[in-house]
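DM from R.C. (forwarded with permission)

"hey, sorry to bug you on a friday — could you get me a structure for this? deadline for the figure draft is monday and I only need the backbone to look sensible"
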Amino acid sequence: MMVKEIDIGSGVLGISSVNDLSVENKAVENTVKIEYYRGKDINITVPECIDGAAVTEIGKKAFLGAKTVTRIELPSKVSSIGDWAFASCSVLKEIVLPKRKLILGSGLFKDCVKLEKITANDIGEDISCLLALAVTKMDAPFLFDLEKAGSEDWIEHFDSLIIQILAKDDTDGFSKMLLCGEEDYVGDDSNLDTYILLRKKEKVRILLTRLMHKCGLSTENENTFKAYLTENMNSVVWPLVLEEHGEEQEYFDLLIDAGCINKDNVTGLIDSMGDRYTQMKGYLIRYKGESTSAGDFFDDLDL
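My reply, with the result:
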């Protein structure tokens, strides 16, 4: 196999030629396979054609470990993506794919911890975010179906899986992890209480994303998801939101909408913020004033 390199932005793509065969097993068209990428680009747009040949394949481990890339856009004729093609892209936030039937390898987005959107033509932002959620935090690559994503059946399957995740015992897998690990293993989850907390955090992250993107969400499932957040507000939800989204108003609005933040607990939550998160602390102080005023008004009515 002959591989040559082409310049792209601040890096290079290693490419090879592929012969597409007709049913008579005769070559009818030369196409291009992306074998690897090296460089320091932030955004990568893979060309539609190289030397007059369409790019149709992304090879195994092609973008593996690209540490600077936050966005990758693939061309419209790509039909095959190899194993671990984008794995360990630690800052990758968005990937744009053609909306077509794709031959997909395994572990495509393994350890892509920042991935927020898997985008394709005619797929709205909500579904793009849910697709990313499915292949990262939910570990459900079988939901990575660009043709069906957003359909009623797909949404039903998606939310059913979240219900299953919520129902899973938070201690599941702990004993097996210790037995299969090294005797001197001292990871963050080597203590049972810490292990349970980490499992609950995973569930909360899933719910926050789902409630942020409500496309197709039934009232019943929405109430179930909000109830879980309310139940775990003090021990898990509030510390996690402060740590990971402490200055993002949409998360505070979500918690207010879910009933997790209310006039009865807002004072304590404000106090727990200390001198940090000044903008959102001010936001909650204003919310407290408005909710208290409304409450006092109705409390004063003699009904």
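R.C.: lifesaver. The chain is about 40% helix and 15% strand.
me: no worries. The two ends are 85 Å apart (CA to CA).
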